[in-house]
């Protein structure tokens, strides 16, 4: 098992008992924030108003239901995949994140079978084109939500990611001896 897979497995174990309400409240706030900051993306989604997208992070056991409305987008986290949807996209959390941020090509991920897609492909292409139309950096978008505390939150997030990476590398997060690597 690679360090990344071990980290995702640990994240899944940590997330599974937690209630989704705080995450869903954050997603409502974040969706509104993105709608205000990137109105061109929302306008590009008008042809798919009323469509429902189910995006499943297979390694986290978590799905996100994205619904397009007139001038808005809403996102809700759910723990099940059996939700009515016009489009279904499945893949690892990191593949989906990189796809969303435009760091990886969706076609390459699809043909390498890192993601799977089913349903209304025209709606999916409209979503993809809308997201590709603007450079959206999720980390900076999240940090800006904290207003005057954005700098502090950014530093704390950077430190947390660094600590997480060190724990994965040393094995402390898994009860391993120092220097013993995860997956050996």
Automatic annotation (TrEMBL):
Residues 35-132 form the SCP2 domain. InterPro entries: SCP2_sterol-bd_dom, SCP2_sterol-bd_dom_sf. The lineage of its organism: Bacteria, Pseudomonadati, Pseudomonadota, Alphaproteobacteria, Kordiimonadales. This is SCP2 sterol-binding domain-containing protein. It comes from the Bacteria. It comes from Gimibacter soli.
């Amino acid at each position: 098992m690679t360090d990344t897979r071990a980290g995702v497995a640990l994240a899944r174990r940590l997330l599974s008992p937690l209630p989704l309400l705080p995450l869903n409240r954050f997603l409502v706030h974040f969706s509104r924030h993105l709608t205000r900051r990137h109105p061109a993306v929302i306008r590009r989604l008008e042809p798919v108003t009323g469509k429902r997208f189910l995006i499943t992070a297979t390694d986290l056991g978590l799905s996100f239901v994205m619904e397009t409305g007139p001038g808005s987008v809403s996102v809700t986290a759910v723990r099940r995949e059996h939700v009515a949807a016009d489009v279904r996209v499945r893949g690892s959390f990191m593949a989906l994140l990189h796809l969303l941020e435009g760091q990886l090509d969706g076609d390459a991920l699809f043909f390498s079978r890192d993601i799977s897609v089913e349903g209304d492909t025209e709606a999916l292409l409209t979503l993809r084109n809308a997201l590709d139309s603007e450079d959206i950096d999720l980390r900076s978008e999240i940090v800006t939500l904290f207003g005057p505390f954005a700098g502090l939150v950014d530093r704390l997030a950077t430190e947390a990611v660094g600590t997480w990476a060190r724990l994965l590398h040393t094995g402390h997060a898994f009860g391993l001896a120092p220097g013993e690597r995860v997956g050996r």
